[in-house]
Amino acid sequence: MRVRYDQATDALYVRLDESAVAESEEVRPGLVLDFNERDQVVGIELRRVSKQSPGANLKEISVQVA
Questions:
Q1: Which tens digits make up the pLDDT trace of 6-35?
Q2: Percentage of the chain surpassing pLDDT 70?
């Protein structure tokens, strides 16, 4: 899994799988899901992240594993 924040576009992208993206769908305003050919979610894009999470430190992202 890879997580990337693009400051220029103010978007956070989470890549779950390395398979090719066959289709993308904006399921809600600012939330885009990428699907592979088997209709599995392989990527998640959150747009306008700094506006949705004011005060968040987007240069440092922590992940918790349960």
A1: 989 999 999 999 999 999 999 999 999 999
A2: 97
- Type of residue at 47: R
Q: What is the 3-state secondary structure (H, E, C) of 9-38?
A: CCEEEEECCCCCCCEEEEEECCEEEEECCC
Specify the long-range contacts of residues 7-11, CB closer than 8 Å, at least 24 apart: 7/58, 9/47, 10/47, 10/48, 10/49, 10/50, 10/51, 11/45, 11/46, 11/47, 11/48, 11/49
Given a contact cutoff of 8 angstroms between Cβ atoms, the answer to whether 5 and 15 are in contact is: no
> Strand, helix or coil at 61?
coil
